[in-house]
Amino acid sequence: MDSIQIIGYIGALIVGVVLGLIGGGGSILTVPLLVYLLGYNPILATAYSLFVVGITSLVGTYDKYKKGLVDFEIGLAFSFPSFLAVYLSRRYLVPAIPDVIMSFGNFELTKDIVIMVFFALIMLFAAISMIKKKKDLKPSEKKQAYYKTFIQGITIGTITGLIGAGGGFLYVPALVLWANIPMKKAVGTSLIIITINSLIGFLGDVQNLDIAWDFLLTFTAISVLGILLGGMFSKYVSGGKLKKSFGYFVLIMAAYIIYRELLELSVI
Question: Taking a C-beta distance cutoff of 8 angstroms, is the pair 154, 147 a contact?
């Protein structure tokens, strides 16, 4: 095992600890870690991220379930359109994107660059949502028609499939505002959606990619250990302040990714 791989596993532990401390957000570190530190291409990195996110969210779901904070009926109803979109995105949409999307002279816009820039834009959105002081979300007075939930699930699932992240920062407000459930239960319920979406999305990748199972299972196990440690430490740390600080870190990371990818454009 070389030093870079050891650092990667340390990064996996940090990802898990962050998830355990603030209940989300750590998964968006997985793709940059795999791409820029360990040298994986974005397609494989987003696939690995889906597996890591799915397994770690499964652990989180069990913890929330023990506390009575998971609504399986709503979670499974919302999961159906979402996991369809995630699976189809990973199985057909991502492979269908051409390796070179556009070229003009020395300018070449590649599939890898587009995916990483899109990922960075979603990171920016997530960072702002963590930093901004939000008013408490309140459930609407009545539940919306299921066809609207279906459309929303398809939309969020497609985004999740493209970037290989959990999408908790999208699912939680959706569950509160559209499914009419309380905030704490929305957080727990989002985990079951993320678990199902991520693992089914990963199944779409298994059919297209060669998976290094030894590395992936080790990386995932270390992330799960991190979640357990983060959960133990969470009672001693202010979640609000930590989430805001992490938001600034994600903001810097997003800017770095955009800078790196634009630099790639300039050297082609």
Answer: no
Average pLDDT, the chain: 81
Q: Are 48 and 12 in contact (CB under 8 A)?
A: no
pLDDT tens digits for range 14-47? 888 877 776 666 667 888 888 888 888 888 988 8
- Token duo for residue 122: 């979603």
0.85 exceeded by pTM: no
Residue with tokens 């969210």: 57
Tell me the residue length of the chain. 268
Greatest Cα pair distance, the chain, in angstroms, is 59
d(CA 144, CA 52): 32
CA distance 75 to 196: 10
DSSP state of 107: E
CA dist 65 and 123 (Å) reads 28
CB 177, CB 186: distance < 8 Å: no
C-alpha dist (Å) from residue 8 to 32, 120, 134, 182, 187: 11, 20, 34, 37, 28
Q: List, as one string, the DSSP characters of 173-189.
A: HHHHHHH---HHHHHHH
Token pair for residue 249? 């870190």
Task: Write the DSSP symbol of residue 145.
Answer: P
